Amino acid sequence: MSEQERSARRGPGLWRRLLRPRLRGVDLLVAVLLALLGFAAAVQVRSTQDDPALVGARQEDLVQILDELANRNDRLRGEIDDLTDARERLTSGSDTTEAALEEARRRAQVLGILAGTVPAEGPGVTLLLRDPDRVLGADVLLDALQELRDAGAEAVQLEGPVGQRGELTPSTEKVRVVVSTSLLDTDEGVIVDGTVLRPPYRFVVVGDAGTLASALRIPGGVVATVEQRGGTALVEQREALVVDALRPLDRPQYARPAEDD
Amino acid sequence: MIPALALLVGVVLGLLLQPTVPAALQPYLPIAVVAALDAVFGAVRAQLDGIFDEKVFVVSFVSNVVVAALIVFLGDQLGVGGQLSTGVVVVLGIRIFSNAAAIRRHLFNA
């Protein structure tokens, strides 16, 4: 390679060669190829920017990505299951809480009727005891009460003094008869749980009316005893009675509910 | 000059038209682009060396692209497409670097 050629290659001739426009067929082909290259490069760059993670990724990479997605899907699905279970537990838990609360309310009602802290209503009988001669003492009332309890009385109140027909008067005292009720004779009448009741007395009893009435009327029973003593006893069956005398709830001072197992 | 303009026109067209790459071509297009770039750098070097020949360029351009795509295709069939693609890119990259170094020596004498 001569010095002249070298300078021609490196000198201004180089630029002239680069810049000199030539338009032969081959040059056109070159231009087309380069345009193609530019086009392809631009498209590729764009598609890579569109979704760099997936487009142009190799098949194995895609499979791997898919695997990862499937794994992640499985994990999330498991998480969904866990959370659904937890939700189920919580919902059913609140259900049982609700049920327990309902049950507790029901028990409170039942126990309230037993303890005389809530009013009670229902069918039953009234037992009117007229005692003009003051011959009926606490023993007769207690017998009557026992008999009523044996016959399934569920709520009982004792009233006195009532009118001759058993109607309430302004001076009528009402006492709810419960498990701890005490009866004590006095000159005026009977002291029931500290309240003085004077005759005529009236029992208001909620329970099975037929059973209660027949229990009172059995030979040698309450009615017979009262009449034998010189009083009168009147039993009436009623469709609907209200036992509305209440007792205060005595909170136990020492006793506490024992722990269930 | 004209080839440079053609390259520019191609880039602008690609950006303007925004075609989507067909799925079948997606693995091959990047490799083909790199192979074509190698051919272009070789052509520039040859031009600077004063031994540029259009026919040689066209043949080398096309064969580069075809061979690169073929290698990737073969790799995909053999299950080593990813690795072969990497290999092709590495080899072409080395060639581009050496060509670029020669061009640099020509242009800046350094």
Topology:
The complex is a heterodimer of chains A (261) and B (110).
Chain A: H1 3-10, H2 12-19, H3 25-50, H4 59-115, E1 120-130, H5 138-150, E2 155-160, E3 173-177, E4 183-185, E5 190-192, E6 195-197, E7 201-206, H6 209-217, H7 222-229, E8 232-243
Chain B: H1 2-17, H2 28-49, H3 54-78, H4 81-108
Features:
A: 261 residues; alpha+beta; Alpha-Beta Plaits; 3 domains; five-stranded antiparallel β-sheet; 7 helices; 49% helix; 19% strand; disordered N terminus; B: mainly alpha; 4 helices
| Total strands of chain A | 8
Estimate the strand proportion of chain A: 15-25%
Ends apart, CA distance between termini of chain A: 110 Å
Give the termini distance of chain B in whole angstroms: 24 Å
The residue fraction in helices of chain A comes out at 40-55%
Compressed to H and E, one letter per element, the order of chain B equals: HHHH
Q: Helix and strand succession of chain A?
A: HHHHEHEEEEEEHHE
Mean pLDDT of chain B: 87
Number of domains of chain B: 1
Sheet with the most strands: spatial strand order of chain A = 3-2-7-1-8
Tally the helices of chain B: 4
Shape of chain A: rod-shaped
Assign an overall shape of chain B: globular
Explain what you see:
The complex is a heterodimer of chains A (261) and B (110). Chain A is built from seven helices and eight strands. Chain A is α+β, with helices and mostly antiparallel strands and 261 residues long. Chain A has three domains: 3-50, no CATH class; 59-115; 122-243, Protein of unknown function DUF881 (Alpha-Beta Plaits). Chain A has a five-stranded antiparallel sheet with strand order 3-2-7-1-8. Chain A has a three-stranded antiparallel sheet with strand order 4-5-6, with helices on one face. In chain A, strand 4 (183-185) and strand 5 form a beta hairpin. The longest helix of chain A is centred in the middle third of the chain and has 57 residues, at 59-115. Chain A is rod-shaped, with a radius of gyration of 51 Å. Chain A starts with a helix and ends in an 18-residue tail after the last strand. Chain B has 110 residues and is an all-alpha fold. In chain B, helix 2 (28-49) packs antiparallel against helix 3 (54-78) and helix 3 runs antiparallel to helix 4 (81-108). Chain B is globular. Chain B starts with a helix and ends with a helix. The interface between A and B is large, with 39 and 45 residues.
